[in-house]
Write a structure and sequence with these properties.
The chain is α+β, with helices and mostly antiparallel strands. It is built from 11 helices and 24 strands. Strand 11 and strand 12 form a beta hairpin. Helix 4 (about 115-125) packs across helix 11 (about 480-495). The longest helix is centred in the last third of the chain and has 18 residues, at about 480-495.
Length: about 500
């Protein structure tokens, strides 16, 4: 029951940190995962089945609190399986653009420049296989051609490189098999390093400490496990702050409301929740939408609302299906033959919170994304412009033969005010929560972790997941989370050498 390192959460980053520590013989490593193993689970491993996982047995399927302006019916999918969201998502793979890390550096975060992080992306791609998703889908080709006619260059996102373009995504897969962190680093399980122990279906309840506020172990559903050197939290942007708060680390006032003894007053824990809000514009197709596709969302389009911007501020995913999960309940029509563009705000500004609703560690946390509440109204302005741009792309000659009519928002909705109301009712998320235990400089009162992922005021504790993001990545974040897993292992090995 004693180990040198304990990694809590077998997700996109946790698997990698645990594997690298064991591979480089840093000590005996325990990897704890609340979900099941993904090995031999075809519903998880076969990428084209990813949508069947949503709201299923392997999904925490978190609800959100009522939203002041956003869609309160939205749900957040989080994976209950080894590999975390890399075992549960659509496998769209991007390296975050240099711009994102330049912003982190401007915020005072040292050691996270584009040059600092690139070697760790390279380490990820030594293990994780990326393939271009070009299925030859004719509807998809027409969308790329129409984007080019509109003025967006045609270029595929090879090896996950960001470009201001329209093209086919790179996906982390081999054929139809997803290449999650678990598949890439751990499979087959009977060949993992002998100093790595994996426990699945083991829920972490609380962290344990000595009198000097050093973490000594983890209380779980299967007993107490001791850590001689460090504990690394990789539960994601919802469950990492939840575990910290259950352990007495977080906003003191909130912890006191629940009669949790305050070990360390860190107001940033569970604050600064970031996400990519996602809208939808959907058309009924004038002809059958081809079935050829890797996972129905294999094409992306990046666009600027202002040509002077340093980077695109809108990302569209093309769905070769009716994306109607929130439009139909709001009263909009749908069709069996349909396709959709789902724009998201790449550098979204609204900030929400994660809080405890009880001291039961297996209860869902209270998630309040506070969509479209940023003081300047930036997020909704960008989203309104995205609907206008999508409509202009749809007017191009290449796409005209495919469009019978616009289903949602539909021709009756034209003014900015009408589009805003439509977005508030029907938007979704791209399932990219981040920022709830953010890295920051010493003078940042909401800092939870430093630039080496260590938790402020607590010894022998680090975090490796999307919760440490100071700002949200402009693109799909999964590869960046994996990069952080690699970086965390490297920090630990340096510090214990």
């Amino acid at each position: 029951m004693k180990y040198d390192f304990i990694v809590v959460g077998g997700g996109s980053a946790g698997v990698i940190t645990a594997y690298r520590l064991a591979e480089r013989k840093a000590g005996n490593v325990l990897l704890i995962e609340a979900g099941i193993s993904d090995e031999k689970r075809e519903d998880v491993l076969q990428l084209d089945q990813w949508q069947s996982l949503l709201e299923g047995e392997l999904d925490y399927d978190f609800t959100i609190t009522p939203q002041e302006q956003g869609n309160s019916n939205m749900r957040h999918s989080r994976a209950k399986v080894m590999g975390g969201c890399s075992s549960h998502n659509s496998a769209i793979a991007f390296q975050a653009p240099d711009y994102d890390f330049e912003v982190w550096t401007e915020l005072g975060l040292e050691g996270w420049t584009p040059e600092d992080v690139r070697p760790f992306y390279d380490k990820v791609f030594e293990k994780v296989n990326l393939e271009l998703s070009d299925s030859g889908n004719a509807c998809g080709k027409a969308m790329i051609d129409a984007s080019e006619e509109y003025g967006i260059p045609k270029q595929d996102f090879i090896q996950g490189e960001y470009k201001e373009a329209a093209g086919w995504f790179s996906l982390n897969k081999k054929g139809n098999t997803r290449h999650s962190s678990s598949v890439a680093y751990l499979h087959p399980y009977d060949q993992i390093p002998e100093n790595l122990t994996i426990l699945t279906e083991t829920f972490a309840y609380r962290l344990l400490f000595d009198l000097d506020k050093n973490v000594t172990g983890v209380e779980t559903s299967k007993g107490v496990f001791e850590a001689a050197k460090e504990v690394i939290l990789s539960g994601g942007a919802f469950q990492t702050p939840q575990l910290l708060m259950l352990s007495g680390i977080g906003p003191a006032e909130h912890l006191q409301e629940l009669n949790i003894p305050v070990l360390e007053d860190l107001p940033g824990v569970g604050s600064h929740l970031l996400d990519h809000p996602e809208g939808v514009i959907m058309w009924e197709s004038a002809k059958p939408v081809p079935a050829e596709t890797a996972q129905k969302y294999e094409i992306g389009i990046f666009s600027k609302t202002d040509p002077s911007l340093p980077i695109a501020d809108i990302m569209f995913h093309l769905g070769t299906e009716a994306f109607d999960m929130h439009t139909v309940p709001a009263g909009f029509p749908t069709s069996e033959e349909a396709f959709s563009l789902t724009p998201n705000v790449m550098q979204a500004k609204s900030e929400g919170t994660v809080r405890l609703q009880s001291t039961d560690p297996e209860a869902s946390p209270l998630i309040d994304p506070k969509y479209f509440t940023d003081p300047e109204g930036y997020d909704i302005k960008v989203m309104v412009e995205s609907i206008k741009i999508a409509r202009e792309i749809a007017e191009q000659p290449a796409l005209k033969p495919w469009i019978k009519r616009e289903l949602a928002p539909g021709s009756a909705i034209q003014t900015d005010e009408e589009i805003e109301e439509y977005i508030y009712k029907t938007h979704n998320t791209v399932y990219h929560p981040a920022g709830t235990c953010k890295m920051g400089s010493d003078d940042d009162i909401n800092r939870v972790t430093n630039n080496r992922l260590q938790v402020k005021g607590i010894g022998k504790l680090r975090i490796a997941d999307a919760s440490v993001f100071p700002t949200i990545t402009s693109v799909n974040p999964n590869m960046t989370v994996m990069m952080i897993g690699e970086r965390c292992a490297d920090f630990i090995i340096q510090d214990h050498s």
